[in-house]
Amino acid sequence: MLSWALMFFIIALIAAGLGFGGLAGAAAGIAKILFFVFLVLFVVSLLSGVVRRPVA
């Protein structure tokens, strides 16, 4: 998931450098959404691990 966000971020940088403003904005928006989805899934995964940890 994070690799997709990074890929769209790189596409946005290349498109912005070449002057394709609309494409750069769309790719940056997709990268931002994927990054936040990854971040939420990561936090849920951490919380799930803390809850399931057996107490010694």
Automatic annotation (TrEMBL):
Keyword Iron-sulfur: no
Signal sequence, renumbered to the chain: none
UniProt keyword terms in alphabetical order: Cell membrane, Membrane, Transmembrane, Transmembrane helix
A Pfam family this chain is assigned to: DUF1328
Transmembrane keyword on record: yes
Transmembrane segments: 6-26, 33-51
Domain of life assignment: Bacteria
GO CC terms in record: plasma membrane
Listed NCBIfam families: PRK13682.1-1, PRK13682.1-3, PRK13682.1-4, PRK13682.2-4
Protein name per its UniProtKB record: DUF1328 domain-containing protein
Organism listed in the record: Blastopirellula marina DSM 3645
Lineage: Bacteria, Pseudomonadati, Planctomycetota, Planctomycetia, Pirellulales
